[in-house]
Amino acid sequence: MTELKEFKLPDVGEGLTEADIVAWHVKPGDQVEVNQIIVEIETAKAVVELPSPWDGTVARLLADEGQTVDVGVPIIAIDVAASPDFSERSPLPAPATESAPAAGQTPAPPDQPQPDKPQRQAVLVGYGVKASSTTRRARKTVPAVSAAPAVSAARALAKPPVRRLAKDLGVSLAELAGTGPGGSVTRGDVQRAAGDTTVRSVSVVQNGAGTGREERIPVRGLRKHMAAAMVASAFTAPHVTEFLQVDVTETMAALRRVRDLPEYAGVRVSPLLFVARALLAAVARHPLINSSWDGDAEEIVVKHYVNLGIAVAAERGLIVPNLKDADALTLPELARGLQALTETGRAGKATPADLAGGTITITNVGVFGVDSGTPILSPGETGILAFGQVKDTPWVVDGQLAVRQACTLSLSFDHRIVDGALGSAVLRDVGAMLEDPIRILAWT
After folding, report:
1. CATH entry 3.30.460.10 includes domain 222-442
2. Which of 52, 64, 189, 301 sits a CA distance of 20 to 30 A from 26?
3. What are the tens digits of pLDDT across the range 317-348?
C-alpha cells in the first residue's frame, strides 16, 4: 500500500520566507531514502542541501530549478510505501548554526504539530527554528496549491553555477548540446546561446544612436540580501574612512620565509595572513573596534572574541564568511583557516553558520589591482579594513629615495562607537606591524 506525500519547503532556521530552487538531485521515478539529499536551495544567506524526510519513490517535482518558492509550499511529491514515521529515524547532524535543535531534541514530522505546543509549519530533520523572542517578518500567505504538473524527468547536465547563469540569461538548458565532460553544459555553452537566442528577458530600446539592449537580472537570494544589508548599514551607521600608506617590504620578505617552513606545507600563504594577524593584534590592543551597537538597549556590546570576516567575490555575489575565534589560532592555523574560508566561499559552499556572527572584517581589494577604497561596514560590525595592492613605490628611507614595496590600508568604522583618535590608533597599529612584523610578536 502506498501513500503520496508532498514535502513542503521548510523553515531552515534563518527566519526567511522564501528560497530559490538551485538544483534537483533526483527525478521522477527515482527511489529515495530518509536523509538522502534531494535538492539544493538558495536562501538569502547560503546554498543549503535538503534531505528527503521519507523513504519512497519520487512521483513529481513540483518546482522548477530557478523558481522562487515560499516556505510552506510543496516542492516534491513522494510515493511512500508504508514507511515508518521519519521522526523515529536517526536525524542528520544539525548544521553548525545557532538555530540547530538542542541535543536530544527531535523536530516534529511534517504536517503533525507537537503535543501541547501551538501548531506551526514543521521543520526538516536536522534543522530547527531559531529559539528567540525576536519579532520576525511576517511569513507570506501561501495560496491554495492545486495539483502541480510534473517537471520533466530529463535534466541537462550542468553544475549549479551554470544553471544560475542560464536562469539569469534566460537560456533553456534543455535546448543546449553540452560540450563539457560527459555532455555537460558549460558556462561557454550558455553564453554562446545567450548571444544567439532572442527568447530572453531582454528589452529592446531605441535611442538616438540606434538600437541597444537592456538585460534584466532578477534580484534574488544572496544578492537581494546583500543589497538590503549594505543599504541598511550605509544609512544606519555613520561611516568614517581613514587611509594609511605603508611600506610592507619587511612583511613581504617575512612572507617568503614563512612559505618555506614545514608548518605551512600545502598552504597558500599570502600577504592577507600577515594583515589578518596584525588586525587581530590591533583588536587586542583596542577592543572597542570589535564591538556592535545595540540601539534598542542603548548599549555598546564589546566582543571579547574575534570572528574574522573575509569578503569573498563568489559566483553568487559578495559574501563575507567569517573564521570563528580567529584570535585564538596560531599563525599556521590562521593560514589554513583563511585558505579554507576563501575556497569554500568562492565555491559557493559557505553555510549560514559561516556567514553569521562576524565581528570585524577584512576586504582584500588588492587582488583586483585596486589601491584603496571606502568599504561599507558589514551589518552589526564596527570596523572593516581594506587591504590594497602591494606594488613597487618610490619611498624615502633614511633621507634617500628608494624603491620599496608599499600598499594602502583603508579603515572604515562606525563613528557612534569609534572616534577619530581610536580609529587612527587602530589603523596606525596595523600599519606599524606590517612595516615591522616583529611588532606582531612584541604586541601579542
Report:
1. no
2. 189
3. 788 999 999 999 999 999 999 999 999 888 87
